[in-house]
Amino acid sequence: MNSNTAKAPVPVAAHGGRNLVACEGALRGRRADERRTEGMGRRMRLLLVEDEAKMRGVLRRGLEGAGYTVDEAADGHGGLSLALDGGYDAIVLDIMLPDVDGFDVCRRLRQAEVWAPILMLTALDAVEDRISGLDAGADDYVVKPFALGELLSRLRALIRRGRPPRPAILTCGSLKLDPATRVVSWDGEPIELSRREFALLEFLLHHRNEVVQRNRILRHVWGDRTDEQTSNIVDAFIKNLRHKVDRRFDHPLIETVRGVGFRLRCPAEE
Ligand code: CA
After folding, report:
1. Residue 59 lies inside a defined structural domain of this protein
2. How far does residue 236's CA lie from ligand 1's centre (Å)?
3. How many structural domains comprise the chain?
C-alpha cells in the first residue's frame, strides 16, 4: 500500500514540459467569497482537470479567488489518480482531454465509487455530449465560453447538494435503469426508450423524490435553450415517459408539481 499520503503538495503529471503543483496558491490572501466556503467549517477542495494551460490558469485563479483550494491536472490520467485518492468537494472536468477523455474519467470515478460532484466543461454545445456526460455520471455542465460567475454558481449548487452515493443501477421500486448498459426495465421486462427519454428518466431517478424544475431538466437534457418551445418539449417527453413507464405502476410515478416542475415519486424508499 502506498503510505505516502501526507498532506504535502502533490506534483501532478507533467504536461507541456512543466510540472504543475497541486495546492499551489492555497494560502493566498482571503477574499470576499472565501467566507462562503469557510462558513461551512473548512475550505472546500476542488480538482480541476483541463489540458489547455491558459484556460486552466484562468480557472484556477478564479476558483482560488472564490476561496477554494484547487488541485489541478492537465490530462485524464493525472486527474484520475488525484480524484481516486478522494477528498474533493467537487471536480471540474474538461471533456476534451489528450489521453483519457472526460467521459471516461467520470465513468471510472463513479465505478470506483467516487461520488464527488462533477461539473463538466464542454466546448461543444451538443446534446450528445450532455447525454454522454450524464450517462457517465456527471452532475452538471458549463459550455465554453462561459462566465466565471456562472461556473461558480453551478459549483456552489453542486457542493450544497453534497455527494450521496449513487448506485451504478438506479432504481425506483421495480423500475431499474442501468446507465452503463443503457437498459431500462420494469420487473425484469425491458422498456424501450429513446435517447432523450432515457436521459430524462435518468435525471429524474438521480433526483427521485425531489421536485425538479423544468429549467433544470431542460439544461441537463436539452442544453441551455429555455424558450417556450423547449419548455413544451419537457412536457412532451414527460408525457412519453408516463406512457411507457408510469402506466406499469399502480400509482402515478411522475408527479406534476404545478408551476414548478416534476417529481419522481418512489414511495418504498421514502
Ligand atoms: Ca480540452
Report:
1. yes
2. 35
3. 2
Q: Which domain holds residue 122?
A: 11-161
What pLDDT, on the 0 to 100 scale, is given for residue 48?
98
Query: Can you tell me the distance from the alpha carbon of 207 to that of 105, in angstroms, rounded to the nearest whole number?
Result: 22
**What is the predicted pLDDT for the residue at 28?**
35
Final residue before a domain boundary, out of 131, 161, 191? 161
| Among 161, 193, 228, residue at a domain's last position | 161
Helix (H), strand (E) counts: the chain: 9, 12
Residue 4 is assigned to a structural domain of this protein: no
Taking all residues of the chain, what is their mean pLDDT, rounded to a whole number?
A: 78
**Helix 228-244 vs helix 195-206: crossing angle, to nearest 10:** 90
The rounded Å distance from CA 56 to ligand 1 centre is 9
The answer to whether residues 182 and 265 belong to one domain is yes
Ligand 1 center from residue 155 Cα (angstroms) = 19
pLDDT class of 56 with cuts at 50, 70, 90:
very high
Contact indicator for 151, 119 with CB cutoff of 8 Å = yes
C-alpha 53 – ligand 1 centre gap (Å) = 9
The whole-number pLDDT of residue 22 equals: 29
